[in-house]
């Protein structure tokens, strides 16, 4: 929603200001300039990125328009879920959660949190390391190193579409200049025309520079920034799980291990100690 609001503000400010200054909006409608800029940008995107990067970018683009996925409520659900699992482990032993980990869709614990269960990336990360805790012989240091490597891979994959779109945004003003130069060439080749007609050709050429800069910094660039911020939010979920599980492995009680995870969260989504305690208490009753 905020992305759409931002787009409306950009368009309204630029074109509204132009119109209020006495400009003619119709003069900015130059489909051939858009063809040159858009076509060159699309070609450069295909030329400069592998098929894997292109697929990752197209897959990530719809996320720009989606509402924030990781809210305070989802973090509280995550910590309540971790508390429930770790409390069961402390009471009945690690083997008691084997069935929950192997089939989270049928687990009485996991199914209490359908919003989390729908996030396959988070659930797989959590269950993979719980499975290693149940059946593996890894110590805390080895498990921490493995988690760090997976989170780093997650970030590297998430940065691919961000970099692709950022480079595309940086190229848009240059392609606008290309369109403008081609318009100037056309104008110079038509130097025999009356001054009024030459003025129109010059204006059309300048629109290319305008469109390239507007598209690059007003539209494409912000898309890359939004994707980068969403990547940071998804990484924070994994870091919360990492810190909580490592605290549990090191012998801390479930309530304290979950408190370790709470401290990792951004301040804008981090619940207070009392809020988390109450939420965990409700989970315990369930």
TrEMBL record:
Every Motility protein A N-terminal domain range: 4-93
Domain MotA/TolQ/ExbB proton channel: 135-237
Pfam families with a match to the protein in the record: MotA_ExbB, MotA_N
Keyword Cytoplasm: no
UniProt subcellular location: Cell inner membrane
GO biological process, one term: bacterial-type flagellum-dependent swarming motility
UniProt keyword Flavoprotein, yes or no: no
Membrane-crossing segments per the record: 6-27, 34-50, 174-193, 205-227
One GO cellular component term noted in the UniProt record for this chain: plasma membrane
NCBIfam families per record: MotA1
Family named by the database record: Belongs to the MotA family.
Protein name: Chemotaxis protein MotA
Organism (species): Nitrosovibrio tenuis
Higher taxonomy: Bacteria, Pseudomonadati, Pseudomonadota, Betaproteobacteria, Nitrosomonadales
């Amino acid at each position: 929603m905020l992305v759409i609001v931002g787009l409306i503000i950009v368009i309204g400010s630029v074109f509204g200001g132009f119109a209020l200054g006495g400009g003619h909006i119709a003069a900015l409608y130059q489909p051939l300039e858009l063809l040159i800029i858009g076509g060159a940008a699309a070609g450069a995107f295909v030329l400069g990125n592998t098929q894997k990067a292109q697929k990752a970018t197209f897959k990530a683009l719809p996320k720009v328009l989606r509402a924030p996925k990781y809210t305070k409520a989802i973090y509280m659900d995550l910590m309540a879920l971790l508390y429930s699992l770790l409390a069961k482990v402390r009471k009945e032993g690690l083997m008691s959660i084997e069935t929950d980990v192997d089939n989270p869709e049928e687990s009485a614990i996991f199914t209490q949190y359908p919003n989390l269960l729908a996030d396959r990336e988070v659930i797989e990360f959590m269950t993979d390391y719980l499975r290693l805790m149940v059946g593996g012989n890894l110590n805390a240091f080895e498990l921490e190193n493995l988690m760090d490597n997976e989170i780093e891979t997650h970030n590297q994959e998430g940065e691919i579409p961000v970099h692709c779109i950022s480079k595309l945004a940086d190229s848009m003003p240059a392609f606008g200049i290309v369109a403008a130069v081609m318009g100037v060439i056309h104008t110079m080749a038509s130097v025999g025309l009356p001054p009024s007609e030459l003025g129109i050709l010059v204006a059309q050429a300048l629109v290319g520079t305008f469109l390239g800069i507007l598209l690059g910094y007003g539209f494409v660039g912000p898309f890359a920034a939004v994707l980068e911020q969403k990547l940071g939010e998804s990484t924070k979920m994994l870091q919360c799980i990492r810190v909580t599980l490592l605290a549990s492995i090191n012998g801390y009680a479930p309530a304290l291990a979950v408190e370790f995870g709470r401290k990792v969260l951004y301040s804008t989504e981090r619940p207070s100690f009392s809020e988390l305690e109450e939420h965990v208490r409700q989970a315990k009753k369930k």
